[in-house]
User: Which sequence fits this backbone?
């Protein structure tokens, strides 16, 4: 099984990076209260195949998913409804290119 994983050096997030994620999740969580959708922070994985059939695992900074039946542990097997990435100098190129294309 070829997972074709890419390791990105994440030097360590700045507190401001985490603050943006936490504020977004808190604001959206309240808005989705009576919905079948859920908002997740950066501890959720999405596992799927790219257009060449390679297995990929992507972890967005925040996401909204409405298909909770596709969840296995902390991994979903479908694309989320919404993805948020907080850009940083070390990850911006990957987030704007390969990662965006996968979603």
Assistant:
């Amino acid at each position: 099984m070829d997972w074709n994983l890419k390791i990105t050096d994440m030097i360590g997030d700045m507190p401001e990076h985490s603050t943006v994620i936490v504020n977004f999740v808190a604001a959206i969580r309240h808005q989705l209260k009576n919905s079948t959708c859920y908002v997740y922070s950066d501890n959720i994985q999405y596992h799927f195949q790219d257009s060449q059939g390679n297995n990929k695992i992507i972890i967005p900074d925040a996401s909204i998913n409405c298909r909770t039946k596709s969840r296995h542990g902390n991994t979903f097997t479908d694309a989320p409804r919404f993805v948020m990435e907080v850009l940083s100098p070390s990850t911006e190129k990957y987030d704007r290119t390969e990662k965006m294309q996968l979603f």
Notes: The longest strand covers residues 45-49.
